[in-house]
Design a protein that fits this description.
Elements: H1 5-17, E1 40-47, E2 50-57, E3 61-69, E4 72-83, E5 87-93, E6 100-109, E7 112-115, E8 122-124, E9 134-136, E10 143-146, E11 160-161, E12 167-170, E13 180-186, E14 191-197, E15 209-212, E16 220-223, E17 231-239, E18 242-247, E19 258-266, E20 269-273, E21 277-279, E22 305-308, E23 313-314, E24 317-318, E25 326-329, H2 377-415, H3 433-439
Length: about 450
C-alpha cells in the first residue's frame, strides 16, 4: 500500500493525537512500517554546574540517563533513576562548563533496551565564573579549590591532585613561597584567574638544599626561598655518640662525624627545623690544580714502585683523609757518598756513576806511578821544557860527536905517509892526494 507524503503527515498527526508514537518512513514510494510506540520522552535544560532532565512516562519503571562529551564516550556518565509517577525531574551536576554533551534516556522491557524520545540529543552547559569556585584547605603545601563544576580540564597546569572529585589542588614551586600564586582558568567562552598568597608554612624541609663546606671553619649553606626575606637558619650539631654536648658550626673540629639540624627562623622566631645533615671536615684535601703543599720523601730506593697516601695527624692520632693512594716509580738518584775506598790500580779520579748521576768525589792517598799526583798545567809545561832541553842536548851532543869524528879523521890522514900503500888485496887505499891526482 503506497501513500503520498501529505497522507503520511496526516497519519502521523492522527497517531500522535491518540497518544501513540510511531516510526514512519515518509518518503514517497516507500512502504510504511510501524513499530511499537515509545513509552517515555524527556527534555534537557542547562543549569548551574550541569543539566536538569525531566522525564515523562505513562509507565513507572527504572530509567538510565546517559551523558558524555561529544565524541568522547570515555567521559560518559550513566545514572539510573526510578520513576513512580508520570513525570520526574533529575539534576546531573559536576559537568564541565561551556561544554557540549550528548545525552539519551533508556529503559528496559521484555524486548530489550528502548530509547525515550527527545527532539535534540546535544546540549551545551553554561559558563563558569569566579563565584563558582571557593578556596579550601585540603593537602598541605598545595593551593586547593572546590567547585561543583568539573574544572580539571580548564587549568593551565597538569600537576593537579585532589582530595575528592570536587576538589583540585595545585602545588606551588619552591620559589613561589612568600609570593602571589596565580591559577588560570580557560574556557572556550570565558577565562579568569585566581590568586593566592603562599605563606612560609608551605616550606617543605625535605626540599631545602643544604650544602656542607669542605674546609674549616665549618659552614652549612642553606638555600631558602628567595622571596622570603626574613628567613634565617641557625645550626646545632652533635658529635656521634655525644648527643648531650651540642656545638655550633664554628666549634666543629676536623676528622669528626657530626649530625646537624637547623632551626629555620622567621623574624628570629623558630618556625620549623631542617632535616638532619651529616658533617665531616677532612683537612688537606688535594686540589689537582694547586701547585703548593709539596711533601719531600727521602730514603726511597731507585727504580722501585711505591704506593703513597697522606694521613694527617690530628690530636696525636692518624686520621683518614679519604684520599686516593698514588702509585709512582722512582727514577735514578745520586749515589751515596763513598765511605770505604780501595784501589788496586793507580787512578787520578775516583767517583761512583750509575749512568744518570755521579756521586760526590771521595779521595784517599795512594801510591801511583807519578807519586799519586795528578798532572796540572804547570806540570805539563815543566815536562815540555824538560823534553825540549833533552832534545836540544841530544842535538848538541850529536853535533859535538860529529865534530870530534871529523877532527880525528883529519888527524889520521896527516899521520900517514904519502908513499905507504896497502896490499893489493885491501879494499880501501890511504894515499896522498897527489898520488890520487897522478893515478887519474
Amino acid at each position: 500500500m503506497f501513500q503520498s507524503a501529505a497522507s503520511l503527515r496526516s497519519l502521523k498527526t492522527l497517531l500522535l493525537s491518540a497518544g501513540i508514537i510511531c516510526q514512519i518512513t515518509a518518503t514517497a514510494g516507500q512502504r510504511i512500517t510501524a513499530s511499537s510506540p515509545p513509552q517515555c520522552s524527556y527534555t534537557v535544560t542547562s543549569i548551574k554546574f550541569g543539566f536538569q532532565i525531566d522525564i515523562k512516562s505513562s509507565t513507572p519503571r527504572d530509567y538510565t540517563i546517559n551523558i558524555s562529551e561529544e565524541g568522547r564516550s570515555d567521559t560518559g556518565k550513566h545514572i539510573t533513576v526510578h520513576q513512580s509517577s508520570q513525570s520526574s525531574s533529575h539534576e546531573i551536576k559536576h559537568l564541565k562548563p561551556c561544554t557540549e554533551y550528548e545525552h539519551y534516556v533508556t529503559y528496559l522491557d521484555g524486548a530489550g533496551e528502548k530509547h525515550c524520545s527527545h527532539p535534540e540529543n546535544k546540549t551545551t552547559t553554561t559558563d563558569i565564573s569566579k563565584d563558582d569556585i571557593e578556596d579550601v584547605s585540603c593537602i598541605p603545601g598545595h593551593v586547593c579549590y572546590r567547585s561543583d563544576w568539573d574544572v580539571s580540564s580548564l587549568l593551565s597546569t597538569t600537576n593537579v591532585v585532589g582530595c575528592d572529585n570536587k576538589t583540585f589542588c595545585v602545588k606551588p614551586g619552591y620559589n613561589d613561597i612568600c609570593s602571589d600564586f596565580t591559577t588560570n582558568f580557560t574556557c572556550p567562552t570565558t577565562s579568569f584567574s585566581l590568586t593566592s598568597i603562599i605563606p612560609v608554612d608551605f616550606l617543605n624541609t625535605n626540599e631545602i638544599h643544604q650544602i656542607v663546606s669542605t674546609k674549616l671553619p665549618a659552614k652549612i649553606e642553606t638555600k631558602l626561598p628567595p622571596n622570603c626575606e626574613n628567613l634565617s637558619v641557625d645550626y646545632t650539631c652533635w658529635e656521634s655518640g655525644r648527643v648531650t654536648e651540642p656545638k655550633l658550626e664554628s666549634e666543629l673540629e676536623p676528622f669528626t662525624d657530626y649530625s646537624c639540624i637547623g632551626q629555620i627562623k622567621d623574624n628570629n622566631v623558630t618556625i620549623k627545623n631542617t632535616t638532619a645533615v651529616d658533617v665531616r671536615i677532612d683537612c688537606g684535601k688535594a686540589n689537582k690544580e694547586s701547585s703548593g703543599r709539596t711533601c719531600l720523601v727521602i730514603g726511597l730506593k731507585p727504580f722501585t714502585t711505591y704506593t703513597c697516601e697522606v694521613k694527617p695527624i690530628y690530636k696525636n692520632k692518624k686520621r683518614d683523609a679519604k684520599q686516593t693512594p698514588v702509585t709512582q716509580k722512582t727514577e735514578a738518584g745520586k749515589p751515596d757518598d763513598i765511605k770505604e775506598l780501595k784501589t788496586s790500580q793507580p787512578e787520578h779520579n775516583v767517583t761512583a756513576f750509575n749512568g744518570h748521576f755521579e756521586s760526590k768525589p771521595q779521595t784517599i792517598p795512594v801510591a801511583t806511578l807519578d807519586n799519586g799526583k795528578a798532572l796540572t798545567v804547570t806540570d805539563i809545561l815543566v815536562v815540555l821544557i824538560i823534553i825540549i832541553i833533552i832534545i836540544i842536548i841530544n842535538i848538541l851532543s850529536a853535533a859535538l860527536v860529529y865534530k870530534i869524528c871529523v877532527l880525528i879523521h883529519r888527524k889520521s890522514r896527516n899521520d900517514v905517509k904519502g908513499d905507504v900503500m896497502f896490499e893489493s888485496t885491501a879494499i880501501y887505499v890511504n894515499a896522498p892526494e897527489s898520488a890520487w891526482r897522478r893515478a887519474s
